[in-house]
């Protein structure tokens, strides 16, 4: 079966523009996670969804960042008024149920803010 | 601040040798521990998980956990050039938290 997919694979935008990043989890996976990986940095947790609810948004760095999930499937991460420090690879992961044991990562979206 | 620390490397070992990767974590209440492998330009891939003190072996990989010392390690026996990658240590704090806290990774190079 298909793995986690993300789109676009690359996004170049100008400072101040809004961007939307999409994640399609593995079919049937109820848990979905967003992470960010900046150059030379480890993976940074952003937000976790269980179904359509987000019980943990503690990693979102500012109110410019938001995410939603619909139908218990596709998730969109939106960054408003992008800044250069938002440049990173944004990774999505999904797992069959609660718990981090079986998180499967997508290929990521490389965001570059000029 | 919950932290996971790893030596950034690079760690270089000859083919056939044992590669030893180390990780320390700051939160004594951490419950679950994971090692991910990340090839350059690729997404992380889970290779080992460990939950209790001691050793856990899976093929050429052995994870070791010492909660008293807040230390987790990954040993790769008979290292192969295809093992060359960045290895990420990740910790789940438990207590209902679902998120993983990652170290910055150790870059391993296995020389033929």
Tell me about this structure.
The complex is a heterodimer of chains A (114) and B (112). With 114 residues, chain A is an all-beta fold. Helices cover 0% and strands 50% of the residues of chain A. Chain A has strands at residues 5-7, 10-13, 19-24, 31-37, 43-50, 53-56, 65-69, 75-79, 88-95, 104-105, 109-113. In chain A, strands 2, 4, 5, 6, 9, 10 and 11 form a 7-stranded mixed sheet that branches. Chain A has a 4-stranded antiparallel sheet with strand order 1-3-8-7, with no helix packed on it. The model of chain A has no long low-confidence stretch (mean pLDDT 92). By secondary structure, chain B is mostly beta strands. Chain B is globular, with a radius of gyration of 13 Å. In chain B, a hairpin with a 6-residue loop joins strand 4 and strand 5 (45-50). The chains are: A mainly beta (114), B mainly beta (112).
**Computed structural class of chain A:** mainly beta
Low-pLDDT runs of chain B: none
- Radius of gyration of chain B (CA) equals 13 Å
* Sheet of most strands of chain A: 7 strands, mixed
Write down how many β-strands of chain A occur, each being a DSSP E stretch of 2 or more residues: 11
Radius of gyration of chain A: 13 Å
Topology, number of strands of chain B: 11
Low-confidence stretches of chain A: none
The end-to-end span of chain A amounts to 37 Å
Summarize the amount of helix of chain B as a percent range. under 10%
Helix content of chain A: under 10%
- Beta-strand percentage of chain A? over 45%
Shape of chain B: globular
Helices and strands of chain B: which structural class? Answer: mainly beta
| Main sheet properties of chain B | 6 strands, mixed
Compressed to H and E, one letter per element, the order of chain A equals EEEEEEEEEEE
Q: How many individual helices of chain B? A: 0
Oligomer state equals: heterodimer
